[in-house]
Amino acid sequence: MSFKNKARQIRNKLYCLPWKILYSLGIYQNSNIPIKYVSERANWAIKNIGQNLKREIDIISPNKIEVSTDPSRCINQVVHFGSQYMWLNWESNISSNNFFISTFFHGKPSDGEEVKIHIDKFLKSTSKLDKVITASSLIETRLLDWGIDSKKLIKIPIGVNTDIFNYANESQKKEIRKSLNIPQESIVIGSFQKDGVGWGNGLKPKLIKGPDIFISTLKKLVKKGLPIFALITGPARGYVIQNLERNNIPYHHSFVTEVEELVPLYKALDLYLITSREEGGPMGLLESTSCGIPVISTNVGMAKDVIVDGITGYICNEFESSLIADKTELFLNKIHNEKNNNFHKTIRKETLKFDWKEVAKLHWQMLYSPLMQ
User: Fold this and answer.
1) What percent of the chain has pLDDT over 70?
2) Are residues 58 and 135 in the same domain?
3) % of the chain at pLDDT higher than 90
4) CB distance 295 to 285 below 8 Å
5) Which end of the chain has fewer CB atoms at under 10 Å, N or C?
């Protein structure tokens, strides 16, 4: 265990211990809110998921759930850790007088020695968990193969706010492109993620996110004679930017701080690319399709649960840029040959079942409500 992890464990033990003692003495009682969703501090996917669940569950049953980064006071509650990393940070110190849930989005031993060690620790800890949640069929199968009890494992997808992420008509798309100085004749391909190591410039690629495959795919599309324009967001994208410039591929990089700022960027796209080697969702998959934007993706995360081949995009079963480029060109030709532009509406229609209203309902019915009884 690294010094940083040891320090975190000691800190969390010191946070939890006083409340366990006070509870044992009858001085401290648990919160009146029965469900605690534990998120990371960073304003990233896990926190976003918790906030969306809270908003919709407050409509189903008000004042039953809160989102927090600190579960140290939790006693006699349903405690849902938004990721397996958060669970392992707290599981040895938090009061055992709770119902515990952990979400497991992604990870496999071949991702590296650190990930392998982490997965081993998680599997050893599952006896303490009442439920394990995952978002995709791919990871569900993986967890079952690793020995997770099928009665303990529940698959519930990540959701999307379809009220916010909506498709644009052609005139709106043109206005957005104009505001971003994107030539109207360009084929605009999106990639909205963090794919550099650390939180600095990100010149060292985080290969699990596939930035090398992304660049190689765009290079092959340019060689095919397509007027490619890359629209990218996210921190630590130095590797991608450096290679776009090196290969004279035009691009626009936007920094966004709020989820809503992504919406016009999606609406400017012709297509969204996911070239990752491992994913849990990602969020960009459903955000794209909710905006009516087709997605070409490697077979990661929820891709096979969301993408209908030839209708909402294509799945690539190999991490090969040539295959991804060919599938991208195939779908772009399909769009060009369509006699009407209803494909945006078709793609969006396929996404409505993943709206947070439906996903929160699944959490309530399959997970929270039964544990509260």
Assistant:
1) 99
2) yes
3) 88
4) yes
5) C
